[in-house]
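Re-run with default settings, no changes from the original entry. Doing this only to confirm the output is reproducible before filing.
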Amino acid sequence: MQLTAPARAMLLGSVSERSAFVSTQAYIPTTEGVAALQWLSYLRRHAYGVDRPRNQHVVAPPGTGKSRLLSHYASQFEPVRDQFGVLKREVALAEAPEDGDLRHMRSRIATACMPGLNENGSYSTEDVIELLLAASVRQLLLDEMGNILNGSRLSQQKILALIKGVTNRGITVGIATTDRLRLVLAADEQLKDRFHMTTLRHWQESEGLRSFLDAVELQLPLPNPSKLSSPAIVRCFLRRERNSTSGILDPIRDACRIAFQEDLPNLTLDLIEDAIESPFPPGGGLVEGRSRHVDAIKAARRSPSPA
């Protein structure tokens, strides 16, 4: 299994450098994630400028990567300045405010269009739409859209009216919510019908999960294969209900940090189990005895092979 070029280059890095590296892995989409990305791209290219365009709603349980998906997608579209020096951005990403307040939502969208604007400024719905048009935004992405349910009923209605107003101007919208808040658009039947829904699901034992783990392993700066997609490791995650993307990646990263500290060549089932079960973080201030498996693993490496 061939590591990615950045992972190969990091093999000679220090413990802290490699630990930092595994915290910033490249985005690895799931099958449903690829579908959501393709829909967002399709709507940006073909629905922009259409009267009442179709839009995208990404629904996902916590920890399955909906926010990472939106930020990865938005990162592909760097803002550029036109011949007059005006900053243009094809895609704008904002996170709905936790309090679900209309004024704060308008401010988040305004500053996503024009960074540098006063985040506490007072912007009308008309102001926000004009800013979107001035910045040549083709697609507006709103993460944690379920937060609007924390606001008053009147605020919810006005935020939905704001989104409808944006789409009425031909700008396509992508929103993301948890599965529990998937009915966030239900109060406006007409608006809800404009959204295509893609659902990200918890992992199950499947070829998709094995492919995902293979892709993760390619980004780990370890010299020997860890065989993360082996049945034993896959079932270890699922048996412990580590069936979200973050629930899988977090112990892998913790196990990597143990391996870096102990100069181990790869991850093992025991090391991953230790990362899941230990009450302490990797290193955790415990120089001796941090991992109950490390001494056994290192002893096995020193033992002569049977004749």
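The longest helix spans residues 245-262. Residues 205 and 223 are 27 Å apart (CA to CA).
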